[in-house]
Design brief:
The complex is a heterodimer of chains A (263) and B (320).
Chain A (H helix, E strand, L loop, with lengths): L1 E5 L2 E3 L22 E3 L1 H17 L2 E7 L5 H10 L3 E5 L9 H12 L6 E5 L9 H9 L3 E10 L4 E7 L5 E7 L2 E5 L11 H6 L7 E2 L1 H4 L7 H4 L2 E7 L8 E2 L4 H14 L5
Parallel strand pairs in A: 1-4, 1-6, 4-5, 5-11, 6-10, 7-10
Antiparallel strand pairs in A: 2-3, 7-8, 8-9
Helix pairs in contact in A: 3-4
Chain B lengths: L2 E5 L2 E2 L2 E2 L6 H8 L4 E8 L1 H11 L5 E6 L8 H11 L5 E5 L2 H14 L2 E6 L1 E6 L2 E8 L4 E8 L4 E5 L14 E4 L11 E7 L13 E5 L9 H11 L2 E4 L1 H5 L20 E5 L5 H4 L7 E6 L6 H4 L2 E4 L2 H13 L1
Parallel strand pairs in B: 1-4, 1-6, 4-5, 5-12, 6-11, 7-11, 14-15, 14-16, 16-17, 17-18
Antiparallel strand pairs in B: 2-3, 8-9, 9-10
Classes of the chains: A alpha/beta (263), B alpha/beta (320).
Bound molecules: flavin-adenine dinucleotide (FAD) and adenosine monophosphate (AMP).
Amino acid sequence: MEILVCVKRVPDTAENEFELNSAGNDLDRDDLVYSVNEWDNYAVEEAIQIVDNVGGSVTVVTVGDDESEEVLRREMAMGADNGVLLSDEAFEGSDGKGIATILKAEVEKGSYDLILTGAQADEGAAQIGGMLAAMLDVPFASLVNKIEVGGDSVIKVGREIEGGNQEMNEIELPCVLSIQTGINEPRYVGIRGIRKVAKVEIPLKNAADLGIDTAAVGEAGAKVKRVDYFVPDLGEGAEMLEGSTEEIIAQLIERIKSKGGLA
Amino acid sequence: MTQIFAYIPHCAGVYEDIAMEFPQAAKKIDEGASLTAVVTGSGADLDKVADSLTGLYSEVIKIDNEALAYPNSEVIRKALCNVLDPQAIILLPHNTLGMDLAPGLSIKMDSAYAADAVDFEGIEGSSLKIVRQELGGAVSTHVTCDISGGAVITVRAGSFAPVEASQGGSVVDKSGEAGDLSSKRRFLEIVEAEVGDVDITKSDVLVSVGRGIEEEENIEIAQELAEAMGAVVSCSRPIVDAKWLEKSRQVGTSGLTVKPKVYMAMGISGSFQHMGGVKGNPYIVAVNKNAKAPIFQVADVGIVADILEFMPELTDAIKG
Ligand SMILES: Cc1cc2nc3c(=O)[nH]c(=O)nc-3n(C[C@H](O)[C@H](O)[C@H](O)COP(=O)(O)OP(=O)(O)OC[C@H]3O[C@@H](n4cnc5c(N)ncnc54)[C@H](O)[C@@H]3O)c2cc1C
Ligand SMILES: Nc1ncnc2c1ncn2[C@@H]1O[C@H](COP(=O)(O)O)[C@@H](O)[C@H]1O
């Protein structure tokens, strides 16, 4: 099975305290720690496991800048066979549709049976997979937490729905699936693994290579544009307890007692 | 005039709560917009939900077809493309059905797509201003959406004030316009989530741990605190993904809904999918080492601390 996995380099929510810049309209990006989108690791792991079982190859692709190459290498250290970086100044400022348009061009250069994305990335949009499938006119399932590969033309997939229940479907190949966390346990990647793929050539493709009309992507083609970042005024927020640990604990116990949480 | 359609999910003849929230969302898009509800399904259940929606919407479009009996988004998408005006704004919930259906719908309708709106700030010219969040709720953003060629927008549940049922609307049957509803994805069955050994929904006090617990061994620290408090340990999703606790301990939209008196969020950032499972207005205690964690916006009391140090001290203090 030929599998393409779409991955994205994102600010790591576990490693950063997000602050606005001094102008108050963008994140302060100076010291941000980036990593591969959490959901994408599960997608790559799933692809590797499928190929281990039935043969084929795994290609990872990202739309990004030079620095995005590092996430491709990381996923190749996990076991992906190939990486492709789609990069062009004209891609900057793309909305979801723009990103999906760029990915579609790359998909059409290959012949993939299965295309995986993460369920969502840093912007919480959960949009690329469904868009890409519709553009390619192939079926789509989101929030996939189980894949059973049987025949050549149809696979079984489980979707996670509300309450943690699982919706089982049959879906024709080729198709696009967005992968939910928990579907597997992504393997650990050590320094050694990264070193092994440090010198592997990663092809870079720009708009011309992909045959993309630059008016349809990037800022120019975007119908949805971010104007600013801000910190919402959500009323009071929590009462913050301060002081020595002892004082804090005494105040906390008193409050929990008054709310019926402690006898 | 702005035309808005609200796609209403339902189950067993009952609409989802967000049906009561779309009217307010539509008003915030455009006070004078014309709003129509859309339901798809089959048979008596569909008739029942369409009828009850006439209490909330002046017009309810129903599309009845055997192929729509189970909400398969590929089939729903085809029906909506054949029935709805692609120049309109189409609202859907940002839930597991909306994420499945809406992005592809926007492509087939050739409309703009915006996901997970939490507020709207009106239309200027052909540009709709939308408020949404990024990075798990750590920051908010304004985005503009060019609606001149129509738009598909998913809305976060609980973001808009619900309206009361009152007006007597009417149902319009558009089943005849649904067109070809064949699909390359076929629904097979629902596998229900496993039931665990403890029922976190029954506990008055929950000590809930998130990724801040850092290591599997540290779960014990939370268990000791819970024991001292007569509470039960629950958790956020990453803890279940890592297999440190069973799925039946997970709080959130893809886990369980809990209604305790006191909810202790220990090293949990406060994503909407997690908080979506915390109901009944409990007293929320948040302990997090990041003073900017979004959980502090929704908690009642907050402490900036390392839970691995704080929890044992709290346990000792409670034990006396
Ligand atoms: C469709 C869908 C459904 C989902 N359903 C659910 C669901 O049902 N339930 C759910 O929980 N999530 C769900 N999620 C995932 C959700 O989006 C978040 O990713 C998740 O809730 C984050 O969990 P967390 O807060 O534990 O981790 P993080 O967001 O990583 O937060 C960890 C927090 O711990 C703090 N911290 C770290 N170390 C320490 C320490 N030593 N002491 C104190 N604080 C510390 C950090 O500052 C941070 O705020 C769902 C996602 C999707 C896409
Ligand atoms: N710039 C990008 N390059 C490649 N894949 C992407 C990109 N942005 C998003 N994706 C894919 O789409 C998934 C969902 O992201 P989103 O729709 O942005 O929430 C991610 O997990 C990736 O698999």
